[in-house]
Design goal:
Blueprint: H1 2-5, H2 24-36, E1 42-43, H3 48-57, E2 62-64, E3 76-78, H4 83-96, E4 101-106, H5 110-125, E5 129-130, E6 134-135, H6 142-146, E7 155-158, H7 165-172, E8 178-181, E9 200-203, H8 206-220, H9 226-243, H10 249-252, E10 258-259, E11 264-267, E12 273-275, E13 278-282, E14 287-292
Parallel strand pairs: 1-2, 2-3, 4-5, 4-6, 4-7, 7-8, 8-9
Antiparallel strand pairs: 9-13, 10-11, 11-12, 13-14
Helix pairs in contact: 2-3, 4-5
Length: 295
């Protein structure tokens, strides 16, 4: 993240990179020192516990790199790619392509619960038939469970890219359902994996993200993923608002929003963020862009 933040000419005048450490206490110490030195806005930290502690300790706007939407508040803005943003992108394309019957399968845990709730909310708003979520720790009996209330759905949304994903995908291989994934899939190497062939997943629009990721990879020696793009976009956000003299909640929530390498985005007064994403199709060793959403 430090490497990403220094690309594009570096942080520049008035922007500093400070290590938040690994605990809530170290993050608070870093944040309070920054504010005492004159910081008018903070980008980061990444983790939920750190963000929550920092938001209680300082009185300047915080743009957290966490994807935990529950952190959003009057001065705390959630900049990470949230389950709701992934669901909005992938289910919008599903609706446009006539996949009106969708089931969501998630593993136990907070991310799964948030993803399922987002899929139900977004899918219903889009006019889809959203089946009751299946929460499962393994793929055993998955197809039978999906058939319990009738024929298989037209699409199955698998948002979690954890150890359960490969088993879920393999169980659904050849069943005639369209696999859908979240931005978490972006961190996986899906090439050469037959179970994922022709699957769709939400991701940063490659037209914006590819050039950044190539530059980052050349500097860092390895691909960085979405979090590095967010770090880069966070520095650019500070630069834009700093140059305009708008390092404030009002500046963050401007009507026309912003454009970053992860995609276009706009902050809401609630602290949440609307974000445009692409939807990619898995091919034979490559991905193709089949659609995108805007803000």
């Amino acid at each position: 993240m430090r490497t990403a933040a220094t690309l594009g000419g570096g942080p520049g005048i008035g922007i500093e990179i400070i290590d938040s450490g690994s605990t809530a206490e170290s993050a608070v110490a870093a944040a309070t020192a920054a504010v005492a030195a004159g910081a008018e806005m903070l980008v980061g930290p990444v983790f939920s516990a750190q963000t929550e502690a920092v938001s209680q300790a300082v009185r300047v706007p915080i743009v957290s790199l966490s994807n935990n939407a529950s952190l959003a508040g009057r001065r705390t803005f959630v900049f990470g790619v949230t389950p709701a943003q992934s669901a909005q992108a992938i289910l919008s394309i599903a609706a446009q392509r006539g996949l009106g019957d969708v089931a969501t399968v998630v593993p136990p845990g907070t991310f799964g619960a948030q993803s399922a709730a987002a899929a139900e909310r977004v899918g219903t708003a889009l006019g889809l038939r959203v089946r009751p979520t299946l929460v499962r720790s393994s793929a055993e009996g998955l197809v039978a469970a999906l058939q319990a209330s009738g024929p298989l759905p037209k699409a199955v949304y698998l948002p979690a890219a954890d150890a359960t994903l490969a088993g879920f995908a393999e169980a659904l291989r050849g069943q005639g359902v369209q696999l859908l994934g979240s931005t978490q899939w972006s961190s996986l190497d899906l090439s050469g994996r037959p179970a994922f062939r022709d699957a769709w997943f939400a991701a940063p629009d490659p037209l914006r993200f590819a050039a950044f990721d190539e530059t980052y990879s050349q500097v860092a020696g390895s691909p960085g993923g979405i979090i590095t793009g967010l770090a880069f976009d966070g520095v650019e956000l500070l630069r834009i608002l700093g140059q305009a003299g708008q390092l404030s909640v009002r500046g963050l929530t401007r009507d026309n929003g912003f454009t970053g390498v992860v995609g276009p985005y706009r902050f809401l007064r609630s602290g949440l963020c609307e974000r445009g994403l692409g939807v990619l199709k898995v091919g034979a060793g490559e991905f193709s862009l089949i659609g995108s959403t805007s803000v």
